[in-house]
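CHAIN AND CONFORMATION:

***
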Amino acid sequence: MSDKIVVGGVPVDTRHWIGGERVASSGTFTDHSPIDGAVLGEIARGGPAEAQAAVAAAKAAFPGWAATSRAERARILHAIADGVEKRLEELAVVETTDNGALLRSHRRGVMPRVAHNFRFFADWLLKLAHEDFETRGHTNHVSWDPAGPCVLITPWNAPLMLATWKVAPALAAGDTVVLKPAEWSPLTASLLADIAAEAGLPAGVLNVVQGYGAEIGDALTSHPDVRRISFTGSVPTARRIAASAAAHLTPLSLELGGKSPLLVFADADLDLAVDLAVEQYDNAGQVCLAATRFLVEEAVAEEFTRRFVEKASALKQGDPRDEATDIGPNIHPRQLEKIDGFVQRAVAAGARAVIGGHRLDGQYYAPTLLTDVAQDSEIVQEEVFGPVLTLQTFTDEDEAVRLANDTRFGLAATLATGDPARAERVTARLVAGTVWVNCFFVRDLQAPFGGSRQSGVGREGGTWSFDFYCDLKNTVTAPNGWNNHG
């Protein structure tokens, strides 16, 4: 097997990155492009041995990195951002080929955001401080001590951006990292390892191990030397990770699934509401924050639906490398089967497909809107993670809030209304980690991010990230405590 493959003209190493070196495995797994099913290459398939080696490398590198000054850590993070920007086109092409998201989005939004993730946490580190405070004349000083090796497990829907949401603050905090990317989209994590090494990140500070799910994941999350685990993905996998981490009480940050609502009131700007609604097909519906449940006030439901169908029907679906494409493929044949299963069971139970409701050629699924769905139905209650939306109606605020909150999730909610007082009343009652009012997917890294209920545990972003990736220490000093010493 060759150690490198070429994807869109870009060489990508298929081996792990452990302790500053490329490491092969005895086994491999095949990586396919969702665009056309083409084989991209054979990727090193890690297991317990690779997990042990990566954690050992992170542990060995930790004292030196933890002792590195804030200014030097920040400098290296900015150098990594420089490397991302230098290779932005390569990263965009590889990730589009590997996970099927739009190339234009990767070029204009996603990869610039990857660089921003490193710059933001580098800058935030330099200003991170609490004011000292007094207790009966004693001075309290709060500090953030690096915690140790971290295991970061990331999903396939936005591989590099979501990885760097975790990698950047962990490195800034002085921790060392073992990154385990999703097996369905592993390639840009390998390129990140190259970029970090070129930026001067010391060997062992960032390690990247590839592998299939529990084959390597259990060994990572149960390791006694791991001090933090951050995971983005499904609730069932999170339960397994939490059980694995429990033996050593390893702190967890979990950003999990969602079944978020879009509430449209009769006083909303309907054109804006429809634009927000159609935006939920972004990335072929493979967005955890997507508002997949439309809750529309009865008085405007018919007009909203008409406008939505008109706008959604104009979306162009096809090759994500085409500048004109709006919706690309779904990530994997198994995911496509899952999506179609949800839709067909819903239709069999009485739902009506206003648009879509069927598979297309290859790994593409027609943008779908289902009506006549019951609140307790599977299609309303469970995350589909594809271009499948539902529409229900309500008559007043109380019913809207009740329907919005009536799932086991609480990741996000979107609200369309022209009444500021209503927005304030409703958002106060919604169970969600993030609420957007007359907008969607505006994400500032200084704000807390995470989910309520089964959408997650903990918050990251800004100081909250450092609170997670560090051990907070409070030092209390007595008044005139130095007078008795020479």
